[in-house]
Design goal:
Protein name: Autophagy protein 5
Shape: globular
Helix content: 25-40%
Structural class: alpha+beta
Subunit structure: Conjugated with ATG12.
Radius of gyration: 19 Å
Order of helices and strands: EHEEHEEHEHHHHEEEEHHEEHE
Family: Belongs to the ATG5 family.
CATH architecture of the largest domain: Roll
Distance between the termini: 18 Å
CATH class of the largest domain: Alpha Beta
Mean pLDDT: 87
Main location: membrane
Number of helices: 10
GO molecular function, one term: Atg8-family ligase activity
Largest sheet: 6 strands, mixed
Low-confidence stretches: 1-18
């Protein structure tokens, strides 16, 4: 994988190796180099892939100084939406460390963004958001705290709550999956999103794979055999095999909001 793939990287800290894919994803980080017009010196840091850029604004305020820090981030002049940092990196596929500019722009309410996305994923899975709405205040608080500061203790709390949400008493209706494609040339948007209801099985007893789901959602790119696919799915910075069972992939590799956020990288012929 070349450097533009922005692969998963381990947080540079003294800790034991993750023992599961979910734990590995949770502890994965990305290196950023953030600049501001007020300073010639960039702020260098590692951030969790599952976190959100607005959550690091307090640190930037201390570094660049009060009154000089903006509220939005951009990449090569393009404003970044309020999506998980790892997903943004997969969309833009920049060289690392990722050079971002800090400036004035929309003020995002990250807590509301995260909770709304969590509810939406719950609704897709079950036809109701009752699972999220029934969470205790303590669980809701722990879940949000885990997003703000993803350390090993928070992972245990997150995993417990996440397992409850992803394993409801009744069978899953659909898998929360959203695809992100490169925008058309000269488009103002940063990406094109594709979403539709995808069931856990293609028929009774037949497991829905990532490949069969992509063939439904993007037939022009993924129709036919695996070898003939015209694009590659990227999740958490790495290619995903098309034969992966979709429900199992959701349980092991969904983002903290419960969604499979998958970028589609077009093949170069």
């Amino acid at each position: 994988m070349d450097e533009t793939s922005a692969p998963v990287s381990n947080r540079p800290a003294a800790q034991s190796l993750p023992t599961s894919l979910q734990s590995y994803i949770w502890h994965a980080t990305l290196p950023l180099a953030i600049t501001h017009a007020s300073s010639a010196v960039p702020y260098l840091l590692h951030v969790p892939r599952l976190s959100y850029l607005p959550l690091i604004l307090p640190r930037l305020n201390l570094f660049f100084g009060p009154g000089t820090v903006g509220s939005s981030f951009s990449h090569r002049g393009r404003a970044l939406p309020n999506l998980p940092i790892g997903l943004l990196c997969d969309i833009f596929a920049p060289p690392l460390p990722w050079a971002l500019e800090l400036g004035s722009g929309p003020v995002y309410e990250t807590h509301d963004t995260f909770i709304n996305s969590l509810k939406e994923a719950d609704f897709v899975r079950n036809g109701t958001a009752r699972g999220v709405l029934a969470m205790s205040k303590e669980d809701s608080k722990q879940l949000w705290h885990a997003i703000i500061d993803t350390n090993s203790d928070d992972f245990d709390a997150f995993r417990h709550i996440n397992r409850t949400l992803l394993n409801p008493p009744s069978r899953l209706k659909h898998i929360p999956i959203r695809l992100y494609l490169p925008p058309p040339p000269l488009a103002a948007v940063a990406y094109q999103a594709v979403q539709q209801p995808i069931t856990p099985e293609t028929s009774p007893g037949e497991v829905q794979t990532l490949g069969s789901a992509l063939a439904l959602m993007l037939p022009s790119l993924f129709q036919g055999s695996i070898e003939s696919a015209q694009a590659e799915p990227i999740l958490h910075g790495a290619p995903v095999p098309l034969y992966a069972p979709l429900e199992e992939l959701m349980r092991e590799a969904a983002y903290a909001d419960g969604w499979l956020h998958i970028c589609i990288r077009l093949s170069i012929n």
